[in-house]
Amino acid sequence: MKTVLCPDAHDLLLVIDVQNDFCAGGALAIPSADAVVAPINRLAQCFAHIVLTQDWRPADHWNFADNHPGRRPFDTIHLAYGAQALWPSHCVQGSRGADFHPGLRLSRAELILRKGYRSGIDSYSAFYENDRSTPTGLSGYLKERGIRRLFLAGLATDYCVLYSALDARRERFQAVLLEEACRGLDIEGSVAKALQAMRGAGIDIWQTA
């Protein structure tokens, strides 16, 4: 069922990682990722507050398979904080792949939060690094601004959007997933599992179009 979107001054649109490397032709392209751009642009017109996250990785990042001789993308290694998937090199600082999708029309965004810049820790969530204890500072920023509810959109549903939504609840924000404005990698049913996890955490899942 479609939901009418009527955000107020305490609501914020959080747009996750809509960057060239996650879109068509990118180093870690997500199926149909470009399809999120139009709904995000449309939905953004309803919000007074917008924040973007930007994956921003050094070339020597430990989660790049290229930095582990003999390893391939999607292999798993073990770091101090636990198991870590390896990925193709992507969203390297200053590269075209790290740029936002050129079709985004979000010049009113109040903050661009860069994540993944610590070479030894991967970073999915907008709130915490993958060690689950190193904060990005986003929670404090939002609370000081009086934001109470987050509407999440972007890439990928089953990774960075999922972790950001769960951490939003961990930080006691209300959270809503705008499903038509997200796409996922969907590895062995991972999108369905992500949606189930979000519902279980009290995250609303809306279709607005």
Automatic annotation (TrEMBL):
GO terms for molecular function: metal ion binding; nicotinamidase activity. Transmembrane segments: none annotated. GO terms for biological process: pyridine nucleotide biosynthetic process. Residues 12-205 form the Isochorismatase-like domain. It comes from the Bacteria. Keywords: Hydrolase, Metal-binding, Pyridine nucleotide biosynthesis. The keyword Hydrolase applies. InterPro entries: Isochorismatase-like_dom, Isochorismatase-like_sf, Isochorismatase_Nicotinamidase. Its EC number is 3.5.1.19. This is Nicotinamidase. It comes from Pseudomonas indica. The lineage of its organism: Bacteria, Pseudomonadati, Pseudomonadota, Gammaproteobacteria, Pseudomonadales.
